[in-house]
Design brief:
By secondary structure, this protein is an alpha+beta fold. It folds into 2 domains: about 70 residues, no CATH class; about 220 residues, Alpha-Beta Complex (Fumarylacetoacetate hydrolase, domain 2). The protein has 7 helices and 19 strands. The strands form 4 sheets. A 7-stranded mixed β-sheet has the order 7-6-17-11-12-14-8, covered by helices on one side. β15 and β16 form a beta hairpin. The two termini are about 30 Å apart. The mean pLDDT is about 95.
Length: about 300
């Protein structure tokens, strides 16, 4: 694991940015003497300068007396108010094979061979849920599914960047669960060929639809985001067990393409797609009381309970 991790935690009045070393949380604004680092967005907007300062604080942690125990600290989504949440769809080869079988379709060719670009949808930023929190399943859905996703946190603005330089814009990595109401994928009574057939709001943007956390591991401590194991369990039963090497479009390709459409800003989140093992393929869906855990190699474990 990394030398330090970045969190947002509940302070006396509002969210505060913190640095975790071992089992201790240090308030970032206090530890660095930079008032603008009181929030995660404030830190990320100064990421190029902050990196060396954070390493110095982490190295001096053993001598500091102003920390608080991690246990008992209420963690929030690491970026509580991102400007954008961009989610890669259909981006793991094993998941594509799985969904083709579910739909009785022939597997599609590699999109690269057709000259296609990565494809993303957007989740509402206020549907984030904190680590270790209880997520209330939406009353309108009976088919809420899990989707474990490696998530990149942008640390430098990115516009029209090259694939070769794209990862230079990543501050770090966290974990997301792209919860999906599968029974609201398509709108009824709308022609299948209509561009208005799909209900992205109902399927992807209900309250709590994006658990995120528990922290951000700096990009320097994840040498290759395409070489990371990813696993999801429901009530300690393995459902997804895969590897980011199975991504169709790499994170660098995703950032480069997104940056041709919009300027990515510090704090933006990129959910990089989910592997095989989703509930839809098993005809299994989340129910109240289920405990979902996502473990990503080198980052940690995100846990949430359904209600």
């Amino acid at each position: 694991m990394s030398q330090y991790k970045l969190v947002s935690y509940q302070g006396p009045q509002d969210a505060r940015a913190g640095l975790v070393v071992g089992e201790t949380v240090f308030d970032l604004a206090t530890a660095t003497g930079r008032p603008s680092y009181a929030t995660m967005l404030g830190l990320l907007r100064d990421w190029s300068s902050a990196r060396a300062l954070l390493r110095d604080v982490a190295m001096s942690a053993a001598k500091r007396t102003d920390g608080r125990p991690l246990r008992g600290t209420t963690l929030l989504p690491p970026v509580p108010t991102p400007a954008g949440i961009f989610c890669a769809g259909a981006n793991f080869s094993d998941h594509m094979m799985e969904m083709a079988q579910v739909q009785n379709l022939a597997p599609e060719p590699d999109p690269h061979s057709l000259g296609l670009n990565p494809w993303h949808f957007i989740k509402a930023t206020h549907c984030l849920a904190a680590p270790d929190s209880t997520v209330k399943l939406p009353a309108y859905s009976k088919m809420v599914d899990w989707e474990a996703e490696l998530t990149a946190v942008i640390g430098r603005p990115a516009r029209n960047v090259a694939i070769a330089n794209a990862l230079d814009h990543v501050a770090g990595y966290t974990i997301a669960n792209d919860l999906s109401a599968r029974d609201f994928t398509k709108r009824p009574h709308i022609a299948d060929g209509s561009p208005f057939k799909y209900d992205w709001l109902g399927q992807k943007c209900f309250d709590g639809a994006c658990p995120l956390g528990p922290w951000i591991v700096p990009a320097d401590d994840v040498p290759d985001p395409q070489n990371v194991a990813i696993k999801l369990t429901v009530n300690d039963v393995i459902k997804q067990d895969s590897h980011t090497s199975k991504m169709i479009f790499t994170l660098a390709e995703q950032i480069a393409h997104l940056s041709t459409r919009v300027t990515l800003q510090p704090g933006d989140l990129i959910l990089t797609g989910t592997p095989a093992g989703v509930g839809l393929a098993r005809k299994e869906f989340l129910k109240p009381g289920d405990v979902v855990k996502i473990a990503i190699e080198g980052i940690g474990t995100l846990t949430n309970t359904c209600a």
